[in-house]
Amino acid sequence: MTSQSPTDAPVNSPSTPEQIPVTFNGSGAEYFGIWIVNIALSILTLGIYSAWAKVRNKRYFYGNTDVAGASFEYLATGGQILKGRLIALAAFIVVYVLLIFVSPLFFLLAIFLGTPWLINAGLRFNARYSAYRGVRFRFTGTYWGAFKAFILVPMLGPITLGFMMPYALHYTARYVVTNHAYGTESFNFTAQVGDYVKIVLTMVAVFFAAMACIIIGFSAMAAPVIIAGYLAIYSLPLIIKPLNFNVYWPGVNLKGNSFEANMSVVRFIWVFLSSSFMVLITLGLLFPWAKVRMARLNASALTFLHAGNLGSIAASQAKEMSAVGEELGDVYDVDIGFGI
Fold first, then answer.
1. Of 17, 87, 134, 266, which sits with the fewest C-beta atoms within 10 Å of its C-beta?
2. Inside any domain, residue 105
3. Total domains, the chain
4. Gap between the Cα atoms of 133 and 143, Å rounded
5. Is residue 143 part of a domain?
């Protein structure tokens, strides 16, 4: 008789998955100790240590993010990230030479053609060196797939005066999600184009309301109305992010396991602006608290909908990946992020 793990216990029927809050268990004070050492060593080594600093940061945030009783692991090393940065630097030098000594057209062409490869490389690296319950993630996107998802299809937005923007947003998100896998088990993306229509309509409504405020404000010489209009326009990215969050995460599905997202736009804007203000007036010293605060907000807005099979999926994938082995070589170990 086989035993079941707690996460596989049939508490609910398959039609009513168990709701498990996602939690972030880190603290600003704890992360401050990591952050300040990273800054000091990065300065002392003229930036070289920043690659190892990034590993320490990611491991802290991964390890403190809990989903269904287990946290994530970040398995990359500082040496691998440093190698990726050196490759990116070499590519930048080549592109810069094209700009200065050859032609700006070659520079633009290099950026145009190189962007899909860079995006895929970053996604592949982060997936390959991220794990949950001992099983690594994978990214299997192709160059042509990324070219369509990040260059060709997004062009439809401005070309069609925004009418195809929901389709473009959905297409890009679907490319990212469906080309990720947990071991060998691919993710599905269940969000619909209609979900992104709501985001775009909100963007349009806010933009035109803001423009109306600006026009009316100038006509009536009402400075507060003008300021309100400009603030609304500058707040658009802060409005879009939580709306996209609430569409993207419920669309991520792994064999019936998914998420419920309930990010408040008002709360997100408040946390972002108040945290930014505190970082500013403390000359950056409160940055660790701001980052932890945002991580806690993101986690609190997510609920994991457990279909009752997560433990068995992890166990089967661990066994399968052990048999398959690591088929990807070091040629893919490229991380293009420069943050620490």
1. 266
2. no
3. 1
4. 30
5. no
Instruction: Report the distance separating Cα 75 and Cα 155, nearest Å.
Output: 36
Q: How many CA atoms lie within 13 A of 130 on its CB side?
A: 21
Q: Which of 197, 215, 208 is nearest to 233 (CA)?
A: 208
Question: Up-side HSE of residue 4: CA atoms within 13 Å toward CB?
Answer: 9
Q: Is the pLDDT of residue 325 over 80?
A: no
pTM (2 decimals)?
Answer: 0.86
Q: Which of 281-295, 300-314, 317-331 has the highest mean pLDDT?
A: 281-295
**In a domain? residue 300:** yes
Beta bridge partners of 72: 132
Q: What is the pLDDT of residue 264?
A: 96
**Torsion angle of alpha carbons 118, 124, 125, 126, nearest 10°?**
110
For the segment 236-286, what is each residue's pLDDT rounded down to a tens digit? Answer: 999 999 999 999 999 999 999 999 999 999 999 999 999 999 999 999 999
Q: Which domain holds residue 55?
A: 18-71+254-324
CA 35-120-318 angle, 5° bins: 75
Angle between helices 287-300 and 28-44 (to 10 degrees): 130
Contacts for 198 with CB less than 8 Å, ≥ 6 apart: 243, 247
On whether residue 303 sits in a domain, the answer given is yes
Q: Is the pLDDT of residue 66 over 60?
A: yes
Q: What angle do CA 151, 87, 332 make, to 5 degrees?
A: 70
DSSP 257: B
User: What pLDDT does residue 275 have?
Assistant: 96
